[in-house]
Specification:
Strand 1 and strand 2 form a beta hairpin. With 289 residues, the protein is mainly alpha-helical. The chain is elongated, with a radius of gyration of 33 Å. The chain has 2 domains: 198 residues, Rhomboid-like fold, CATH 1.20.1540.10; 71 residues, no CATH class. It has a two-stranded antiparallel ribbon with strand order 1-2. It has a two-stranded antiparallel ribbon with strand order 3-4. The protein is built from 12 helices and 4 strands. Helices cover 59% and strands 3% of the residues. Helix 6 crosses helix 7 and helix 8 runs parallel beside helix 10.
């Protein structure tokens, strides 16, 4: 039973097209495919100026062009050879593994996860850009969806009867070696932070660990013993029978109330309790003398 199934609408498809369920992951792929088509047309006509306003550049972001944090993924040139195949594989990963994550966690948690994944790399690169210039363009993070899926279902059998967790380890090692071989430090850093984020996010949602809570509340000082004021009224007031013995906690609460709101905020019962406590305190002092 899915512990996250709190709302049928959140886990159900967004719509149906010819008996085909459409999830949020499908719309994400639709946006990237549309960006690929638009980028290709702009490159074909030689009108590439708009693309230069969309790619991520840490120096320009630090100068105030913060929209580049969100638009870098919309620049997807068609590429040649394996580059086209790589884009197609990324789209399949988003559709397949993103759909399974959305079914399990629900649409809101899935979208929160993907938005964090999308903005993670440019935000980190902006910080690194304070020392070294960083650039980024095109869709990233599709592989992290696969890592999130294998974290959620580590023992699912994939191709050639290999468990998902071993495939994930093998691919992370392979991509790391490729990045090191070609000195692709940006790609290597993006790989590690996105896969680490995906693994941590799923573990957190499953309750495997919790974030520490910082308590900035100062300890409440214990009020000092003060001489109780004379509360005997000029007129006669009706008081209820006091309790057998007032605890220190009740007296502290009454003293705090006087300090905050004044004597006028006390009820008749509270005044009677304070009067009795004052008389007892005076009797104790006279007995000592």
């Amino acid at each position: 039973m899915n512990a996250y199934r709190t709302s049928d609408d959140d886990h159900a498809p967004m719509m149906w097209v010819r008996n085909q369920a459409i999830y949020a992951a499908h719309f994400i792929v639709l946006v990237f495919v549309a960006s690929l088509i638009v980028t290709s047309l702009l490159m074909a006509t030689g009108f590439t100026a708009p693309l230069t306003w969309l790619t991520f550049d840490s120096g320009l972001v630090l100068r105030g062009q913060v929209w580049r944090l969100a638009t870098y993924g919309l620049v997807n040139p068609p590429g040649q050879g394996l580059a086209v195949l790589g884009f197609a594989i990324d789209m399949l990963m988003i559709v397949w593994f993103g759909r399974e994550l959305e079914k399990f966690f629900g649409r809101r948690i899935f979208l929160r996860f993907y938005l964090g994944l999308y903005f993670l790399s440019p935000l980190l690169f902006t910080l690194i850009g304070l020392r070294w210039p960083m650039h980024l363009a095109g869709e990233t993070g599709a592989f992290a969806l696969f890592i999130a899926f294998t974290t959620l279902y580590p023992n699912v059998v994939l191709l050639f009867n290999i468990l998902a967790k071993w495939v994930a380890w093998a691919l992370v090692a392979l991509y790391t070696l490729l990045a090191l071989a070609y000195h692709d430090w940006v790609g290597l850093l993006s790989l590690w932070i996105t896969t680490g984020y995906a693994f941590a996010f799923v573990c957190f949602e499953q309750g495997r660990f919790t974030l520490p809570r910082l308590n900035f509340r100062r300890p409440r000082p214990k009020p000092k013993l003060r001489v109780l004021p004379d509360l005997k009224p000029a007129g006669k007031i009706v008081t209820t029978a006091p309790a057998k013995e007032n605890s220190m906690a009740e007296m502290d609460a009454l003293l705090d109330k006087i300090a905050r709101s004044g004597l006028s905020s006390l009820t008749a019962k509270e005044r009677a309790q304070l009067t009795k406590a004052r008389e007892e305190l005076m009797q104790k002092r006279s007995g000592r003398n």
